Amino acid sequence: MVHLLGAESVGLEYPTRVVFDAVTVGIDEGDRIGVVGRNGDGKSTLLKILAGRIEPDTGRVTRRGGVTLGMLDQGDTLPPEQLVSEAVVGDRVEHEWAGDAKVRDVIAGLLGDVPWEGRIGDLSGGQQRRVALAALLTRDWDVVFLDEPTNHLDVEGVAWLAEHLRSRWPANRGGLVVVTHDRWFLDAVCTTTWEVHDRILEPFEGGYAAYVLQRVERDRMSATIEAKRQNLMRKELAWLRRGPPARTSKPKFRIDAANQLIEDVPDPRDTVQLKQLATARLGKDVVDLENVSVSFPGAERGGDTVVLHDVTWRIAPGERTGVIGINGAGKSTLLGLVAGTVQPTSGRVKRGKTVKIAVLDQRLVGLEGFMNDRVSAVVAQQKSSYVSGGVEMTPGQLLERLGFTTAQLSTPVKDLSGGQKRRLQLLLILLDEPNVLILDEPTNDLDTDMLAAMEDLLDTWPGTLLVVSHDRYLLERVTDNQYAVLDGAFRHLPGGVDQYLELRKSVSRGAGFDTRPAAAAQPTGLGGADRRAVEKEVAAVERRLEKATHGIHKAKAELDAVDPSDYVTLGAKQTAIAALEAEAHALEEQWLALGAQLES
For residue 32, how many other CB atoms are within 10 A of its CB? Predict the structure, then answer.
């Protein structure tokens, strides 16, 4: 490996705390590094030190001669008077940049809704952030530093960015260091993980899933690690290993070791018990949307703008649903119908008599009247206890579970960080004991540890959970099924986020898609014996899929060893690989179809 840059015995200290103490680390050609850690532990500071934007107090940062580096910082801003085109392609003439496939791909992937000749100052904050990212990616760099690049990207945009970074450099060339709380993105892009904690940097081989495994092993060997944190990460690992075939058939960590670690760990959620509890609290009726349409007055073509059209959605007690869609698709309008803040233009919304809805939104509603109060005083005004997973907890214990320290209890709400405010908002909502909880982009300002803690808490919440998020990992982790808002329609996604991305690709190719209401396309449900039969078939398909995937890898390895001049053997091997890939594709389709039956 060719060395690109590194830090040797780097230390940094502020008047109130030490950030790093003698950190030594290097970046080589081909490295794809994800940086994780608690908020405030120094992840962004580390990137700035390595990029030369901050000088360390001790130690030094060295760079190989001629190495170029580009960085996207959370604080980077573009001149408001600058045009988008100038920011992205500079003074390059049109035929030069338009003839570059990489530049065209970046513009299409990030700036589809951004006016090419618009002023930076006239764009929304999210659009400005995407312009800054596009300006970085359209240029050539040996090393790229990205600080929270998935912020303001939807599921589609995150998938595009992951693919771009995977193919940006040839194998074993270039270097990438990325700070992100998006755990799916970490697994999709990174081959090494750095954890920043307690003034040090600890490296782990592999992406997020491999990091979780190694961290569990580290915690087991260390007698000083708190049992609660260890159990939480074991639970996270258990979910990773029990995920869909797309995750388990291509593991980035040692399967035998993982199985040994989680053999006594139960599933993250007892779905049957939670639904029973939810039904007891809610009854059979929650919220039904029947042939609902919503339109708003608009100047476009002199008529109204239709946001949702003929949507039917019968929400069940204990349902855990993730809602996906591009910005502006109508997700917030849909959840507004459920919450009662939006009225339908046509159709009917029916609510059960015992329904009590709470919304965790991006505006921190519910904290506005408490900004000058201390956290302990705010919590003291709520209920004296909360039951989670059959265990009664005090608000203080719940705060501890959500990552608050004793010292932070005396902090005024206005002085909390964005992530701390978000966690306090969730706590107040849970103490109010709603039976329908709507989460609107709940991952903002939360690090990976706090996301895992929040997900752990939601695993035992006995109500109906509706989640809108661009965080793919969160959607797959806390919900049992996903739906998409597509062209005003509401569609069930038996294949999850992967199916949604394929649907969006088909739209971009002009193929269109079926916009029938989700309820019309759903099966009628399975009885106990039929369900067990389908579950047994799913397990059999997963075993066959794993065997086929292993066969593909083995056949490709054998193909690499064949003499290039031996055309007969080469042809036979390629034919065998094609047959195995066709078999794997058919098995995946079968698995998706069976999954649709189980989720009905």
Answer: 19
Residue 298 has a pLDDT of 62
Rounded to 5 degrees, φ, ψ at 368 are -60, -35
- Burial class of residue 455, CB neighbours in 10 A (0-12, 13-18, 19+): buried
- Residue labelled with tokens 């959620």: 269
Strands 320-324 and 464-468: parallel
C-alpha 190: how far from chain center: 15
Looking at residue 63, its amino acid is R
Tell me the C-alpha to C-alpha distance, in Å, between residue 16 and each of 12, 19, 63, 496, 580: 12, 10, 30, 46, 60
In this prediction, residue 252 has a pLDDT band, given cuts at 50, 70 and 90, of: very low
Map out the domains of the chain with their CATH numbers. Answer: 69-140 (no CATH), 207-268 (no CATH), 269-355+466-520 (3.40.50.300), 357-433 (no CATH), 528-599 (1.20.58)
- Cβ-contact 561, 518 below 8 angstroms: no
DSSP 202: E
Task: Answer positive or negative: Cα dihedral of 352, 354, 359, 365.
Answer: positive
pTM for this entry: 0.71
Task: Dump pLDDT digits (tens) for 226-243.
Answer: 556 667 777 777 777 666
Residues 6+ apart with CB under 8 A from 513: 486, 487, 491, 503, 506, 507
pLDDT given for residue 248 in this prediction: 46
